[in-house]
């Protein structure tokens, strides 16, 4: 049975509309492509230099002092625990000792083992041992002498390693960093940065394979370097053991600083970049 004439005409119209839409869109793509290419501005042919930097942390050694709100909250928790808790084993033992002593007082024939240590004897011995115990000071010799090259200072704070490293013709306080070498991953480059800038004896564990921070800067226009500037990728590492850092021609000095001390020493723009990932 032949198709109705109206349906055939409608299909013909659809085919023509599809052809016109394709030709129009092709013409528009060509037009916008030409305009976009015309707006592209010439850029510098110099590439960016990739750099890896390592934020080496010495984690806190002792717990931090409680502030006023924390002390009040802790006292409230101790009071609630005392009011709601059941008797401990020591308290139960003390009550049993008192009952045995009362029975012996009422009945002289009651057998009480005099060699057995009572709960009161144990408590007296514990108090005497506590009185003879002298805890170590939270303030170390490094704190008293303000030795900022020692990791044995500010034991309740996190310390970060900064080095006075040569950048161009000047020396700047920065995190240890070195240029990325082709063929390495950024993680491998960061591991090499530690040994190159801090010495092979530094034992630190880099955390993760991805950078935690980023900072870029342009070299001066008078620079003869084959790069337009540097892009720094930051990694975090935790110090595993005490060590003495090596200094040389590229690194003149080093310090272990708190977050507040970093703000006093580092360049403002550099500190603004690292402040986004440096946490207490």
Write a structural description.
It is a single chain. This protein is of the alpha+beta class and 280 residues long. The chain is 41% helix and 20% strand. It is built from 8 helices and 8 strands. The protein has helices at residues 5-39, 68-84, 89-106, 119-132, 141-145, 186-198, 259-265, 268-274, and strands at 48-58, 159-167, 170-174, 177-179, 204-207, 213-218, 229-239, 251-257. Strands 1, 2, 3, 4, 5, 6, 7 and 8 form an 8-stranded mixed sheet that branches.
Q: Count the DSSP helices.
A: 8
Q: Strand content of the residues, in percent? A: 15-25%
Overall 3D geometry?
elongated
Termini Cα gap: 84 Å
Question: Would you identify the regions where 5 or more consecutive residues have pLDDT less than 50?
Answer: 16-43
Radius of gyration, rounded? 37 Å
Order of H and E elements: HEHHHHEEEHEEEEHH
Quaternary structure annotation: single chain
Given helix and strand content, the structural type is alpha+beta
* Main sheet summary: 8 strands, mixed
Mean pLDDT: 81
Helical content, roughly? 40-55%
Count of β-strands? 8
């Amino acid at each position: 049975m032949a198709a109705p004439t109206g349906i055939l005409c409608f299909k013909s119209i659809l085919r023509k509309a599809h052809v016109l839409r394709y030709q129009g869109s092709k013409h528009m793509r060509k037009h916008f492509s030409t305009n976009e290419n015309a707006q592209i501005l010439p850029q510098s042919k110099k590439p960016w230099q990739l750099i890896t930097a390592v934020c080496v942390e010495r984690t806190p050694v002792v717990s931090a002092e409680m502030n006023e709100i924390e002390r009040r909250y802790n006292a409230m928790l101790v009071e609630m625990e005392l009011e709601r808790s059941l008797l401990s084993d020591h308290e139960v033992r003390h009550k049993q000792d008192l009952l045995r002593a009362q029975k012996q007082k009422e009945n002289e024939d009651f057998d009480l083992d005099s060699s057995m240590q009572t709960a009161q004897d144990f408590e007296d011995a514990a108090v005497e041992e506590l009185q003879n115990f002298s805890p170590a000071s939270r303030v170390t010799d490094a704190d008293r002498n303000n030795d900022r090259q020692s990791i044995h200072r500010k034991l309740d704070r996190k310390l970060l390693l900064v080095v006075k490293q040569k950048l161009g013709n000047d020396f700047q306080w920065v995190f240890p960093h070195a240029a990325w070498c082709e063929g390495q991953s950024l993680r491998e480059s960061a591991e090499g940065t530690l040994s190159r800038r801090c010495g092979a004896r530094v034992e630190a564990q880099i955390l993760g394979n991805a950078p935690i921070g980023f900072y870029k800067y342009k070299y001066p226009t008078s620079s003869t370097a084959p790069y337009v500037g540097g892009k720094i990728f930051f990694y975090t590492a935790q110090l595993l053991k005490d060590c003495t850092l090596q200094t040389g021609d590229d690194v003149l000095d080093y310090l272990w600083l708190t977050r507040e001390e970093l703000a006093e020493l580092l360049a403002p723009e550099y500190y603004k970049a690292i402040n986004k990932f440096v946490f207490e």
